[in-house]
Amino acid sequence: MPTSPESNKNWHHSILLYSFILISFLSIAGIRFFYEETIDDLEKRLQNQRVRLSVSEQIVFNIKKIESLLFQMAPAANSASYRRYTNQIIETVDLLHHHIDVLQNGGVVRRIFNLNVSGIDQYESASTYKPDQKTDSPIIEVIELLPFVDRIKEKTRTVVTLLEQRDRCAENRDACAQEAMRSVRNFYKELPPFFYRLAENANRHNLKSLLRMEDLQNELTNKKQQLFNLHLLLIVLVIIFSSFVTIVFLRRINLAQLDAETARLKAEEANLAKTRFLATMSHEIRTPMNGILGMVQILEDDELTPTQRRDSLRVIRNSGNTLMQLLNDILDLSKVEAGKVRIHPVPSSPTQLVSSTVALYTDMAHVKGIDIKASSDFSSLLRYNLDDDRIRQMIGNLISNAIKFTEFGEVRVHASLIVGQDRSQFLEFSVEDTGVGIPNDYQDVLFKRFMQVDDSRTRRYDGSGLGLYIVGQFAQIMGGMVGFKSTFGQGSRFWFRIPADEVKVEEFVARDKTPDTGDTPVKRLAGHILVAEDNPINRVIIDAMLKRMGLSTRLVEDAQLAFDVYTASEEFDCILMDVSMPRMSGLESTLKIREWERKNQQPHCPIIAITANAYNEDRQACLDAGMDDFVAKPIILKQLSALLVKFLGVRNSRLNRQV
């Protein structure tokens, strides 16, 4: 179902907005993924930093513990106590070595917690530390701890030796007792600065770990807040998007309903117009058919006078012409609707086109008692590239309407050159009458298909209502336009304009294409004619026409038989070939005949096409197949005679007389 331009515009805007929202969602999803990855990484680093801080705290604790154990060894008075303290110090030093190694290289740290005062119930936890190669710089404080830690064992052995020596001197009351006590006091005087330096390095490392953990905690908090804000923004966008989609879809539904309603109204209008058109066509066809069938019944009366017979034949001929015009209009309509109208411009004189077309309608105008005049602003030598058949048909449609709707006065046909504001030039063909004019209420529908000014049962004027529509379509196909000006009760002026494409005099050889007005007499001819026509009635009619001209005939009912008969021993002076036949078309048969003539070096036999399609493209198809000319159905005796004279010539001047 076609949609309105406004609906298409809204659809394009919707696509753009949907794309923008989709890109926004994808961007937000990507940012959210980035934030989640960052937060996850920060949480891991924060946990790692907690382990590092815990290890640092254990290092500080163990240093203090070792210092305490060393001072607790002084009051002890036996070797067993010294060994016990020494073992505890060595275990603690080993633990310090392990913690320092973990800080440098990573590893698992275990801690034991007493669940009661007695220490019977304990809880052990294990944590893994992995140094961050990107952010954790080499731990200078830890590196400085190692020499001090390594000296703790040495100092422990030294103090044990000094204490044991003190105890032996005191026990033996030797003179060395005072010296031993002095050595012990000197050792313990050196011990606090040692552990102060050791504790200072450990505490500095512990402080850095604590500050780093606080930084990570703040960064993690900020990232979580940003992620929360992003979620909030996403919720707002979802709400906005949902609201917009709802609005857009409601608008599209409304537009679709409006388009559907418009299409329904147009379809109903078209169906109503078609119904009126069919009713009109039924009337238009029955009227000339009644004239034909009625006159045929009258002609069956043997008592008619020659004058009565001529009058009856004139009615039959006029009724047939009316039917032919009606069929041409319907054929033109079908070609326009199917987009198969082709324009074939040839150098033509606008002046001759107007005058020759007016000549065809002079008798019709005089019968009604009105004058018809032709005029032109062009010299008869000027030529323009025009499809003269179409132009003549368009002028004829306008003239026919003008005569139909004019009761008295005159019809004026004029050709002129119109120059636009952009200096573009157009040929204008106009038909002006002094007829009844067109009411304002009907002026908008004049160039629409299936439309008539008066399509009621009591209408005064006959016609199919296709003439103006065909004129408008032909003008549009030629790149032009149509228009009119009418005053009800005073008359109308209809015109069509097409682009002016002038042909220079030296580019063509002037030629008159003035149509046959019916004055050319029928000639008596001599010759033998092969007629290929599948319809038996048409064969009888063509045979009668040819015999009236004095020609002998051979009749066949299809194109294959025509080829077989022609290539046999019988000789023919001309072939009349129907184009559309069963088994084989006339075009195919012509191609075979021309091929046979070339192979057998036979003289060229004129072939005249008989066809119901009388347009330039149909003529060209016949010529391309090898035919020499064509005559359109229904066949006019004088036109057929003129063609045969062209190809056969007058065999015997004594036979030249009018039939």
Task: Describe the secondary structure blueprint for this structure.
Elements: H1 5-73, H2 79-105, E1 107-114, E2 122-129, H3 140-172, H4 176-299, H5 306-338, E3 346-348, H6 350-367, E4 371-376, E5 383-386, H7 388-404, E6 410-419, E7 425-433, H8 467-477, E8 481-487, E9 491-499, E10 502-503, E11 528-532, H9 536-548, E12 552-556, H10 559-566, E13 574-578, H11 586-599, E14 607-611, H12 616-625, E15 629-632, H13 637-648
Parallel strand pairs: 4-6, 11-12, 11-13, 13-14, 14-15
Antiparallel strand pairs: 1-2, 3-5, 5-10, 6-7, 7-9, 8-9
Number of strands: 15
- The amount of helix comes to 55-70%
How far apart are the first and last residues' alpha carbons, in Å?
61 Å
Biggest beta-sheet profile? 5 strands, mixed
What assembly state would you assign to the polypeptide chains in this entry?
A: single chain
Number of helices: 13
Sheet/helix structural class: alpha/beta
Describe the structure.
The chain has helices at residues 5-73, 79-105, 140-172, 176-299, 306-338, 350-367, 388-404, 467-477, 536-548, 559-566, 586-599, 616-625, 637-648; strands at 107-114, 122-129, 346-348, 371-376, 383-386, 410-419, 425-433, 481-487, 491-499, 502-503, 528-532, 552-556, 574-578, 607-611, 629-632. It is α/β, with parallel strands linked by helices. The longest helix is centred in the middle third of the chain and has 124 residues, at 176-299. It is rod-shaped, with a radius of gyration of 58 Å. The two termini are 61 Å apart. Residues 455-460, 509-519 and 650-659 have low confidence and may be disordered.
